[in-house]
Amino acid sequence: MNKNLIFRYIFIVSFSGLSLPNFAQQRGEVQDQEFVIRKDRVLTVPVQPRNFERIPVLPTPKSTANFNYLVKPFFLNLPPLEIAPEASLKQFPRTNEELFPGFVRVGYGNYASPILEARYNLWEDGDYNIGAKIKHEGFYTGPVGGKNSAENHTNVGLDGTLFKDYFELYGHVDYIRDLYNFYGYDPENVNLQEFVTPQNIFNTFKIKAGISNLEKMSDLNYDANLNVRLFNDSFMAVENEIGINGRADFWYNENLRTAVDANLSLTTPSDEFYADINRNYFKIKPYVEYRRQGLSILAGANIVFENDITTNKKSDFHIFPAISGSYMLNEAFGIYAGVEGDVNRKTYYDFVMENPFLGPSDELLNTIQNFVASAGVKGTINAEFTYEAGVNVGKYANMHFFTTAPSDSLRFNLVYDTDTRVINYTASVGWEYQDWYKLTGSVNYYQYTLNDLSAAFHRPEWELILGNTFKPTEKFLINANINAMGGIVAYKPTLDVTETLPTIFDLNVKLDYKINNQVSVFAVGNNLLNQSNQRFLNYPVRGIQGIGGLTIKF
């Protein structure tokens, strides 16, 4: 071991000696050098004992204490932090259409038909929204006898909403005036050349006030309102109604909810043949709904009390099931089915809004819907095309129809059927292509089986509705619609015969062109095929009729 160390030192010193002269010549010359080598020196290293024993693993300490952290709240009486938001310096595009609180629309067309519509809203300041509206549309000449078939409509209203932290208070006040002429006479009759049609004016005053929760996606939702309606015409028909409507639902989770709908209606009608009548109606509908992964089930009941007096009535109290369900196998295909019974509330106001040429009524009855069973399929294809097709089978009591009055051919009477069966085949489609075209369409076919009447007077056998919306540019909008119905049977009491009215086919088009964000022009064309359509016997509608005008936002 000592010899090896000696040779290593000699080797290191030899190479060191070769390099030192060169280094000395660069930094400075060295004259004499001397190296001493001692052969008798011995280097020794102390012996380190090796430890072959492993370190023992110590046991993990376990504590018997419970680590309970007591959090004490400390309340500081400090004012809330005020956040002063500042607008971004980036110039984002602004939609000016949302900033105009009011608009005015004026127009004029043939049949001496002016139109005026205006609305203004106060919504920028405070936690409220107040709006006022007025609309007048008149047709001062008509299809039969010029002014003898005139009509006009006026609507004036106020509405407002007050927003609180968790709920909103809302209200509406409306006055509606509708003028009609009984022009269903034969203008070619020489005895009626100087005939002046009787005129009927409907005056309707409505008040509505209610409360509703603000957050519609909360677990508990509610809405309750009070309605008052006062109605009279130019003759002896008067009907006042007080109604209370309520709705509440509670979501247990995202799949299950329970709800209840309630409606109370107190009506006091009077006419030429009756007075001092109180028609009361109360309905409550509790139900439970379950939704999950394409499955939807609703189960409930319609509980109704109504006091109409009829010969075939067993009780004023009714309980009907309300059950429906649907299951979507996938987005493109699903099935649905249901059965529901009900009492459909019918007032004189409802009847006269359906047929404005109604004369004095003998009695007013609700329609008893013993049941309506439905089944069908529906779905969505490629997120663009939607469809639905099905069949409804129903059984009714006291379903209403219209027939010409025997004593006055200008007016219609209400007639009822005690036992009516209806089969309704229905289908509807919808298609939206990008942002410039939208199609909606529906078709219905009805089969009536009646007990007391020979036909379903003035109810269509089939209906077709087709709507098209085109938006070729951002400023241009086109609506083209078709409304058709056929198989309408009318009864002529003077001849004791029935007559099927011609098929109704109405093609109407509306054009809108936006000049700028505040000004646009419009044009409307109705009955462009100039059909002599009759929804009610002896009452043809106007032929080709057009209106053009201007809309200004401010």
TrEMBL record:
Keywords attached to this entry: Cell outer membrane, Membrane, Receptor, Signal
Primary residence: membrane
Keyword Membrane: yes
Keyword Ligase: no
Domain of life: Bacteria
Entry's localization field: Cell outer membrane
Annotated protein name in UniProt: TonB-dependent receptor
Signal peptide residues on this chain, from the entry's feature table: 1-24
